[in-house]
Amino acid sequence: MKIGILSDTHGVLKDTFLDELQSCDYLLHAGDIGSLKCYETLKDLHVPLYIIKGNCDKGEWTKYLPETLAAPIGGKIFYLIH
């Protein structure tokens, strides 16, 4: 199982990085996504995504993002907080 763990992308996702993320079984993003476009790009990878809101994430698109999250993956629990 391959889990992609990232944080503080601040709206930047390079194509080479996206190729690597797309090969993951799960993605965890610990906040500061940075933009609606970056958020939508992550969602469009069609990889199960656990994502939380960071202190720089502002706007309507962040309205339903939790500030903390417990992600159960492979019999383990990953706790996300920014």
List strands and helices in order, with pairings.
Blueprint: E1 3-6, H1 15-22, E2 26-29, H2 36-43, E3 49-51, E4 68-73, E5 76-81
Main attributes?
82 residues; two-stranded antiparallel ribbon; three-stranded parallel sheet; 5 strands; alpha/beta; 20% helix
Give the beta-strand count. Answer: 5
Q: How far apart lie the N and C ends?
A: 24 Å
Q: What integer value in Å does the Rg equal?
A: 12 Å
Helix content percent band:
10-25%
Beta-strand content bin: 25-35%
The average pLDDT score comes to 95
* Class per helix and strand makeup: alpha/beta
Describe the structure concisely:
The protein has two helices and five strands. With 82 residues, the chain is α/β, with parallel strands linked by helices.
Description:
The protein has 82 residues and is an alpha/beta fold. The protein is 20% helix and 28% strand. The longest helix is centred in the first third of the chain and has 8 residues. It is globular and about 35 Å long. The model has no long low-confidence stretch (mean pLDDT 95).
